[in-house]
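Supplementary Methods. Inverse-folding protocol.

Structures were first reduced to a discrete structure-token string of length 294. This string, shown here, constituted the complete conditioning input.
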């Protein structure tokens, strides 16, 4: 019976469950490269696994190394990103590939601080690459991990808004000392939150922590604590307009004129605002009387 007061038992339960139940995902297979791990982590940010896998395979076939991606214009990365969403990630990934090629001889660094110094890489991605690509000993915390800890350890139905200091300390307290076990525990906590301890309708009957889960023992009380701000609806938003404009730019290898973009969205003020935002973010470039990818 795993107990959060006995981190070894808690971790062992998660690791054993993970080895028996983990999904077969490309980035978990033997021989998967550190570059592939980095690309997958960029793509998986706020994007479901099912949408990432085919795009990841296409990407790594076309650009199997950072140098391959660095050798093409950043607009090609944006074009290849297609429908993954949040296309600035494509620009950041391209910039990271350039930095890896120029600063690290084309080899993804294994050190968290060196990874953090790359464009577009935050604390989560740096730790994930160091742990999953190189076996480093660090806690890795995403939304799924935070949910499992909130429920199993803290007895809360939802995690509080993210806090790097608090979240990393909570995961560190549970992390095994052994490096392979620690990597498996990090992955196992993510997997547990992704397929069992899900946000809605958790599958407690399949959870290796059910016997000592604080939230379950308390009778599943409703969460009454602070919440993370909810993102505005996509429909009708500037994000939707930006996406439609980018779709037009991806589909053309010559500049798309402002007149041609009028059919993309009927509200001229919102369309112009979205276009200005894309230019400011480096996702679109004014060229002649039109716009193109960078």
């Amino acid at each position: 019976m795993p107990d959060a007061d006995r981190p070894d038992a808690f971790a062992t339960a998660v690791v054993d469950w993970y080895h028996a139940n983990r999904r077969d995902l490309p980035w978990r297979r033997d021989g998967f490269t550190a570059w592939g791990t980095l690309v997958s982590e960029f793509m998986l940010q706020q994007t479901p696994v099912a949408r990432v896998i085919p795009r990841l395979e296409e990407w790594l076939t076309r650009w199997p190394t950072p140098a391959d991606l660095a050798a093409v214009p950043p607009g090609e990365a944006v074009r290849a990103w297609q429908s993954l969403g949040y296309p600035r990630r494509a620009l950041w990934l391209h910039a990271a590939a350039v930095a890896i090629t120029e600063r690290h001889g084309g080899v993804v660094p294994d050190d968290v601080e060196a990874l953090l110094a790359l464009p577009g890489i935050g604390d989560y991605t740096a730790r994930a690459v160091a742990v999953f690509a190189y076996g480093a000993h660090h806690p890795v915390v995403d939304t799924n991990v935070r949910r499992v800890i909130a429920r199993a350890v803290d007895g809360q139905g939802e995690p509080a808004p993210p806090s790097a200091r608090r979240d990393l300390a909570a995961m560190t307290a549970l992390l095994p000392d052994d490096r392979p076990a620690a990597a498996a525990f990090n992955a196992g906590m993510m997997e547990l939150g992704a397929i069992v301890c899900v946000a809605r309708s958790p599958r407690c009957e399949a959870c290796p922590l059910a016997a000592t889960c604080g939230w379950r023992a308390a009778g599943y009380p409703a969460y009454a604590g602070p919440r993370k701000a909810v993102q505005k609806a996509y429909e009708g938003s500037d994000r939707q307009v930006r996406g439609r404009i980018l779709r037009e730019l991806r589909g053309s290898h010559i500049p798309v004129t402002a007149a041609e973009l009028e059919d993309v969205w009927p509200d001229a003020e919102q369309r112009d605002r979205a276009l200005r935002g894309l230019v400011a973010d480096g996702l679109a470039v004014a060229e002649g009387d039109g716009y193109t990818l960078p």
